């Protein structure tokens, strides 16, 4: 549906987006993540044609956004982080105006405005001036505008900003329902939200794409080991002695005696080793029954922090090398 090839955005000496490439497939929900200043909004603005790229190509349904902007934009509905609504209009007036600009046929315009207002839950606010609406409802008006004309791709930049918990749940449900007829690209700082609604995660840091996969696969790739947390009844010395016999054990990160007399153990083994059968057998022989055993998976937050930290460290090393080279040349 969308193909981004070697996208670059340069501001003087600063490269906000650095050679980013990815493909957006039809019928999926994509989460676009990154720290503040990572280049998320800049990338989304270039995909929608709001900003021009320094170099690179964005194809929307095979139409180049820079060469065929009208054809490409016809397939996109966009909600920026700050919705560009007119405060002295009512939602009904604004959406009718936006629908005309989008080329919605006149005979269909009223029904289309009704459809998007009902979808986003603002029908009862239709006659109020937008400037008198709460931030959450102004956000919903912007969301309605993105849905006008039933575009194939919906791009949402922080769509739940300013919404209360109930409204956030409603918007998540709406985003889920959009999967049936639309491709969705969702940018959010709320990682649990992205994990809950998205099929595929894109992570950008320092202008570069550092990950592109499902949340589950990213967690597996980052873990690189089988990690387990256990609650065991027994003395720490006996437990350590038993676990030390497991082939492929990398390290026991923590063995801690709890106030209730149980011992908490955290261990990691090589990713090719599944130690659970051996753990049960050896601890049974040591008369140290396992009360609880769970596989400790990385959350999306853990993956995000690890990937962006690695990229930050790589940039610091590169900056340090450049400085050292500069000093050496003096």
Task: Walk me through the topology.
Layout: E1 2-11, E2 14-24, E3 29-33, H1 40-47, E4 55-60, E5 63-64, H2 69-73, E6 76-79, H3 91-101, H4 106-120, H5 135-147, E7 153-157, H6 165-178, E8 183-187, H7 191-197, E9 200-205, E10 208-213, H8 215-223, E11 225-233, H9 236-243, E12 249-257, E13 262-270, H10 276-285, E14 290-295, H11 300-329
Parallel strand pairs: 3-8, 3-9, 6-7, 7-8
Antiparallel strand pairs: 1-2, 1-4, 4-5, 9-10, 11-13, 11-14, 12-13
Helix pairs in contact: 3-4, 4-5, 8-11
What this model shows, in words?
- This protein has 330 residues and is of the alpha/beta class.
- It has helices at residues 40-47, 69-73, 91-101, 106-120, 135-147, 165-178, 191-197, 215-223, 236-243, 276-285, 300-329, and strands spanning 2-11, 14-24, 29-33, 55-60, 63-64, 76-79, 153-157, 183-187, 200-205, 208-213, 225-233, 249-257, 262-270, 290-295.
- A six-stranded mixed sheet has the order 6-7-8-3-9-10, with helices on both faces. It has a four-stranded antiparallel sheet with strand order 2-1-4-5. Strands 12-13-11-14 form a four-stranded antiparallel sheet, covered by helices on one side.
- Helix 4 (106-120) packs across helix 5.
- The radius of gyration is 26 Å and the shape is elongated.
- The mean pLDDT is 84.
């Amino acid at each position: 549906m969308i193909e981004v090839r070697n996208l670059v955005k340069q501001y003087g000496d600063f490269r906000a987006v650095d050679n980013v490439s990815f493909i957006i497939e039809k019928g999926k929900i994509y989460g676009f993540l990154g720290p503040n200043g990572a280049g998320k909004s800049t990338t989304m603005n270039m995909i929608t044609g709001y900003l021009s790229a320094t170099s690179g190509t964005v194809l929307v349904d095979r139409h180049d956004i820079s060469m065929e902007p009208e054809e490409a934009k016809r397939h996109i509905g966009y909600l920026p982080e700050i919705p560009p609504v007119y405060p002295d209009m009512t939602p009904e007036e604004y959406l009718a105006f936006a629908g005309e600009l989008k080329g919605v046929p006149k005979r269909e315009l009223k029904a289309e405005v009704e459809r998007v207002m009902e979808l986003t839950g603002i029908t009862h606010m239709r006659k109020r001036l937008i400037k008198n609406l709460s931030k959450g409802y102004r956000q919903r008006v912007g969301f309605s505008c993105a849905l006008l004309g039933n575009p194939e791709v919906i791009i949402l930049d922080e769509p739940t900003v300013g919404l209360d918990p109930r409204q956030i749940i409603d918007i998540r449900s709406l985003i889920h329902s959009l999967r049936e007829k639309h491709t969705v690209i969702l940018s959010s700082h709320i990682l649990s939200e992205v994990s809950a609604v998205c099929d595929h995660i894109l992570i950008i840091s320092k202008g570069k794409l550092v990950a592109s996969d499902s949340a589950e696969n990213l967690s597996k790739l980052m873990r690189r080991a089988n990690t387990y947390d256990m609650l065991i009844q027994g003395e720490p010395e006996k437990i350590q002695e038993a676990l030390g016999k497991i082939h492929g054990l990398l390290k026991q990160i923590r063995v801690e005696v709890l106030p209730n007399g149980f011992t908490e153990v955290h261990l990691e083994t090589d990713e090719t080793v599944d130690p659970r059968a051996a753990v049960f057998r050896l601890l049974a022989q040591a008369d140290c029954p396992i009360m609880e055993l769970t596989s400790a998976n990385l959350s999306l937050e853990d993956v995000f922090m690890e990937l962006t930290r690695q990229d930050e460290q790589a940039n610091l090393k590169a900056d340090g090398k450049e400085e050292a080279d500069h000093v050496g040349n003096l």
